[in-house]
Amino acid sequence: MKTILHKATERGFANHGWLQANHSFSFASYNNPEKVHFGALRVLNDDIIAPKMGFGTHPHDNMEIITIPLKGVLKHKDNMGDEWIPVLPNEVQIMSAGKGVQHSEINGSVNDHLSLFQIWIFPDKQNVEPRYDQKKFNGNERKNKLQTLVTSIDEIHEGSLKIHQDAIISRIDLDKNHDFEYKLKTENHGVYIMNIHGKVSIDAHVLETRDALGVSSTDVFSIKASEDSALLFIEVPMEF
Asked: Which residues carry a binding-site annotation for Fe cation?
């Protein structure tokens, strides 16, 4: 089993005043040649956005973009006809940029900060028709068991959002002292684990809040929670 540990304190950080951004991988002005991507996973940004602030209209192409609000309300607008759609905690948003899309994202609250993860995954198809989708997930259904959020558009998996890549994004909330066994899809897959909060052990590594671990070259591994913990799994092809 291969592992790569990314401590929370070692992430790239940018303070834009209205935006506090932590970058797991090279992004914008943060450039770390040792942290460019993990397989098909290109970006994992951990953002806090001030009330009423956000990202003005900007373009994307040929990227699968997944947004997971943790606290607050995100509002999304794009040139596909979506007009300031709210996205709340326990909801997940996906956008296949494909041959090109323009969108805007803002904090929809006038009082409260917005906290979210934004994930970019390289697609397995180029120049597809852009598409947008979102879905609400029941937080109780990830209590000590895996809740699948996103899978490949080429697979039949009821209840998950779809992207153009053989990836699986999932979450689990583990009780203290609970063990969990994670099984990877294929030998070519690796999984990037973000500890949203709490404290867990994987292999010889201890992950505290916002620490992350990339795991590859194995079919299964065990996780033990020493505190109540919440984990995000981003499983992607390592070669693509």
From this structure: 58, 60, 103, 105
